[in-house]
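User: Show me a protein chain along with its predicted structure.
Assistant: Here is one chain, sequence first, then structure tokens.
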Amino acid sequence: MRRSMIKWGMTGAAVLALLAGCSESTDSASSGGETMDVAAEAAADAEMVATGESGEAAPPELGGVAVSVPKLAYVYDFTYRLAGEEIGPLQRRHADLCEQQGPASCRILGMSKSGDDGEAVTGQLQMAVATRHARAFGALLEDVAEEAGAEQLSADIASEELSKQIVDTEAHLAARTQLRDRLMDVLRTRKGKVSELVEAERSVAQVNEEIDQARSWLREMQGRVAYSTVTVRYETGAMVASDFLGPVTGALGSLGSIFGFLVAALIVLGAIALPISAVVWAARAINRRFRAVPSSAS
């Protein structure tokens, strides 16, 4: 009986030890799972901080200070040379290409063509193209012109920095808006003399005019940044011939003026020389007569 009790006691101790080991392994496994979850969440949080809440890349920083991207207004200028009768069709193809992009991406600002097909013909097409599409649109213009057999004479890209002007205008607009709000508070409370209230009303009108003007400037500059100006110029090959023959034609035309000056100079010289010649001839004649008189008398 005693032996059986000892045996059961040892068995129970072994079972308890086994249960305790299972419990510790379960706890360690769950603890390891929680550690892995925390690490994953920390990595995700770090990634969100780096990219921002919206998922967009954070602005670049220089020395811990965020650097703003420059606001540039781009101007594209292309010049093509081709036959006079081909300028109109190419100009219309370029205009159609702009309209195919949609009004949000490309708008025609102006279109002109002058000259007859048999003479020197010039044309111009001016468009406003979304800045993010401007370079790709310029490549499309070049492809269409190449298909039409046009020769590209020039392709220029210029830009103007508008960041400072935009920042200054925004600051001026904010200051004028705050002043307008303070003046409106004075008018609403009706505190002060009548003359002061009248002056406040005048100041409100003036400040509102300045606010409208600043908003107009700001919209204009923001529009120039958002939409680049693309100008396409067209001309014929006759311009080269006229440049070559221009000096010759000018020289031939100036010959008439040169001959006119020569004739005028001869007339002036003749008008001066004839009287002098007459005087000299008369003097000589008188001198010969006086010499002849004494000889005859002797």
